[in-house]
Amino acid sequence: LMETKQDTAVKISTPCIRKCKLINDHCVGCGRSWEQIRDWTFFTESQRLEIMKGLKPNKELDKEYERREGR
Predict the structure, then answer these.
(1) Running DSSP on this structure, what letter comes out for residue 26?
(2) Shortest CA distance to 49 belongs to which of 9, 15, 26, 20?
(3) How many CB atoms lie within 10 A of CB 16?
(4) What span, in angstroms and rounded, lies between the C-alpha atoms of 55 and 51?
(5) What is the DSSP code (8-state) at residue 40?
(6) What's the pLDDT tens digit per position in 14-68?
(7) Least enclosed by CB within 10 Å: which of 26, 27, 50, 70?
(8) DSSP tally for the chain: helices H, then strands E
(9) What is this structure's pTM?
(10) Could you tell me if 66 and 28 are in contact, meaning their C-beta atoms sit under 8 angstroms apart?
């Protein structure tokens, strides 16, 4: 029996909302630090969920993102 990529794919929880822009070393979309983003696939699922609990949207970073994008 051959395995396909679909059989071996693992779902990874992520707070990413595809608004990726780093300001002050934090993503304006998800709030993760660049280190957390870099290491995300190496964390266990329970570590990812714990980190996600502590993330908060940063309105100031979001305003800065909009300003830099000219919106």
Answers:
(1) E
(2) 15
(3) 14
(4) 7
(5) G
(6) 999 998 889 889 998 899 999 999 999 999 999 999 999 998 766 666 676 677 7
(7) 70
(8) 4, 2
(9) 0.69
(10) no
Buried b (16+ CB within 10 A) or exposed e, 52-65: eeeeeebeebbeeb
Backbone angles phi, psi at 23, to 5 degrees: -130, 130
CB neighbourhood size of 70 (10 A): 5
SS3 69: helix
The answer to whether the beta carbons of residues 21 and 37 sit under 8 Å apart is no
Taking Cα atoms as reference points, which of 16, 7, 21 lies closest to residue 41?
Answer: 16
d(Cα 61, Cα 24) in Å, to the nearest integer?
A: 8
Residue whose structure tokens are 């979309």: 29
Q: Which two tokens stand for residue 19?
A: 């608004």
Token output for 48:
């990812």
Amino acid at 17: I
